[in-house]
């Protein structure tokens, strides 16, 4: 039940005094006038939800304490569980958004009951012990990700439609604008079934990651009514397990290693082979040395992996170092600020959302002509990737640069083309 203005005023005044702050100090921290603070504490002025949240953060309290909108678990167990985990969701606006998700779920559940539809079986329950260390959490997450891929029959292929894949397991997926520090939620209750909610304000690749993360909660935390993924909980071991699951589910080890091999890399600079000689009954040694620099994994290689599996560039780098495919020194090299910027630009142009990129040069206007050939299978990105690798290794000259791509590909100017090429050297 919402509290009246006078009660809210008294609670705010008491909370301020308990923190040893004067009205002037609070006004300075919140960048408002002292008169405004005084009027609020006298009950002469109503307080908005956003203002209450600012007071709550400053005084180390929860919004629910000041707003008085604690939801009864008997009346609405899902919302009650969410507010307990994330009191910042107690604003009127956020609760309306949450109920915009829960409403259709409740109605669908009601109709299924009327039709006597069989209950959703959902994915299997993995009864694993709570991880004791970060290493336990990572091992559990990666192990179950591999098992789920095998069970779902996708093995090491990219997941092209993750929301549909999860929905086929009886778990609905929603995108909802949440507070910036909150990446997603997982809810499960007999009244609404199971659902994953991701932050609509985040990038597409981040949303995919937290869809997979929410799916991990569906597999591991089936007894919980709700789980909230936010910045302050990211170091919890169960959250680390969810992160490990999401990374391994989106970027399966066998798929990543296969992609690296397709680039002609990952084999080491020197490969030793042995063959049994039946004439002498002895093993014969053979050695093959790779061309200098041919095994170096570049930012374009990593961006291409991220492009193929629908992940963020930084996540692909993390996965490569975790799989031992690159060294810690490579990790630092690939995560330099300028390198990350170029990799993200590559993904903006050639990634799954590339159609949203508009031509940035005059030549690009030609690409909008009705007779334009639109390449849909990724050949343009592959050609440029191959040229960059050949140029980097001294097997092609700048005169061979495929400049026509700046006309064919929206958003790819000749200047950007040269940036991509020179940065890989």
Could you explain the architecture of this structure?
The protein is an alpha+beta fold. The chain folds into 4 domains: 1-69, lambda repressor-like DNA-binding domains (434 Repressor (Amino-terminal Domain), Orthogonal Bundle), CATH 1.10.260.40; 114-250, Arc Repressor Mutant, subunit A; 255-289, no CATH class; 299-423, no CATH class. It contains 20 helices and 6 strands. It has helices at residues 5-18, 23-30, 34-41, 49-59, 63-67, 77-85, 92-114, 134-152, 162-167, 204-220, 237-250, 253-262, 299-309, 313-322, 328-334, 337-350, 362-366, 379-392, 405-408, 414-423; strands spanning 171-176, 182-189, 193-199, 226-230, 270-277, 282-289. The strands form 2 sheets. It has a 4-stranded mixed β-sheet, with helices on both faces. Strands 5-6 form a two-stranded antiparallel ribbon. Helix 10 (204-220) packs across helix 11, helix 13 packs across helix 14 and helix 14 (313-322) runs antiparallel to helix 15. It starts with a helix and ends with a helix. Residues 355-371 have low confidence and may be disordered.
């Amino acid at each position: 039940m919402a509290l009246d203005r006078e009660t809210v005023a008294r609670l705010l005044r008491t909370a301020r005094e308990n923190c040893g702050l004067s009205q002037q100090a609070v006004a300075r921290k919140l960048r408002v006038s002292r008169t405004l603070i005084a009027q609020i504490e006298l009950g002469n002025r109503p307080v908005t939800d956003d203002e209450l949240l600012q007071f709550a953060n400053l005084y180390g309290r929860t919004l629910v304490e000041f707003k008085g909108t604690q939801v009864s678990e008997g009346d609405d167990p899902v919302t009650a569980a969410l507010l307990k985990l994330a009191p910042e969701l107690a604003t009127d606006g956020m609760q309306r958004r949450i109920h915009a998700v829960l409403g259709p779920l409740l109605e669908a559940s009601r109709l299924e009951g009327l039709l006597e539809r069989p209950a959703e079986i959902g994915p299997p329950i993995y009864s694993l012990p709570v991880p004791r260390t970060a290493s336990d959490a990572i091992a559990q997450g990666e192990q179950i990700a591999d098992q789920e891929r095998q069970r779902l029959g996708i093995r090491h292929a990219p997941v092209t439609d993750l929301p549909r894949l999860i929905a086929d397991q009886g778990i609905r997926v929603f995108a909802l604008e949440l507070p910036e520090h909150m990446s997603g939620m997982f809810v499960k209750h007999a009244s609404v079934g199971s659902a994953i909610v991701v932050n609509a304000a985040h990038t597409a690749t981040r949303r995919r990651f937290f869809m997979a993360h929410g799916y991990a909660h569906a597999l591991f935390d089936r007894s919980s009514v709700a789980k909230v993924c936010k910045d302050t909980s990211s170091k919890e071991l169960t959250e680390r397990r969810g992160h490990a699951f999401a990374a391994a589910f989106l970027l399966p080890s066998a798929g990543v290693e296969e992609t690296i091999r397709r680039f002609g890399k990952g084999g080491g600079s020197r490969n030793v082979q042995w063959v049994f000689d039946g004439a002498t009954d002895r093993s014969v040694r053979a050695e093959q040395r790779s061309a200098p620099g041919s095994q170096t994994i570049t930012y374009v290689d990593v961006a291409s992996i991220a492009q193929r599996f629908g992940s963020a560039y930084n996540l692909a780098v993390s996965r490569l170092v975790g799989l031992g495919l690159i060294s810690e020194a490579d990790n630092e090299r690939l995560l330099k600020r300028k390198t990350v910027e170029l990799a993200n630009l590559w993904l903006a142009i050639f990634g799954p959302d590339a159609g949203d990129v508009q031509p940035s040069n005059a030549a690009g206007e030609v690409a909008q002509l009705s007779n334009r050939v639109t390449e849909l299978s990724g050949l343009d990105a592959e050609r440029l990737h191959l040229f960059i690798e050949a140029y980097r290794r001294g097997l092609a000259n700048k005169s061979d640069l495929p400049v026509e791509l700046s006309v064919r590909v929206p958003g790819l100017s000749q200047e950007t083309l040269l940036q991509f090429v020179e940065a890989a050297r």
